[in-house]
Amino acid sequence: MSPLRRALEPFITPLFRTWWRFHRGMTLGVRGLAMDAEGRVLLIRHTYVDGWFFPGGGVESGEVAEHALAREMAEEGGVEPTAPAVLVGVFSNAPGFRNDHVLFYRIAQWRPCATASDGEIAEHGFFALDALPDGVSKGTQARLDELFGGAPRATHWVP
Asked: How far apart are CA 86 and CA 106, in angstroms?
């Protein structure tokens, strides 16, 4: 990502989100949980927003959600799924985006691949559940608590 885009991103993103709210009936995103052989979870950190997240992104018009997931996992996290991902849940992303939903998948089988991020991702890595990096996003932490900590499943991505 160019330095100019990185500098403008905090201003451009809210404008695009406002436009999407009025021009798209519903938006759909995907996020994926991949773990390594030691049971550590893959997290990414963007260049334009604070925090650590599961890899993921938007499903493009006409794109199959599983294909979007595979694309985002490879681009952002260097993980190529080698078997079908399992849908863990469908979450509303309100109040951030009233008509946005997130499909959350678990990727049981994968192989490493080269990342293809254009500067959007500052870093990625695998982290033990008891040694997560500072700044894990609320939605990411909530999904980890649901899957590994016995928390009840929420209906919204960010509780």
From this structure: 5
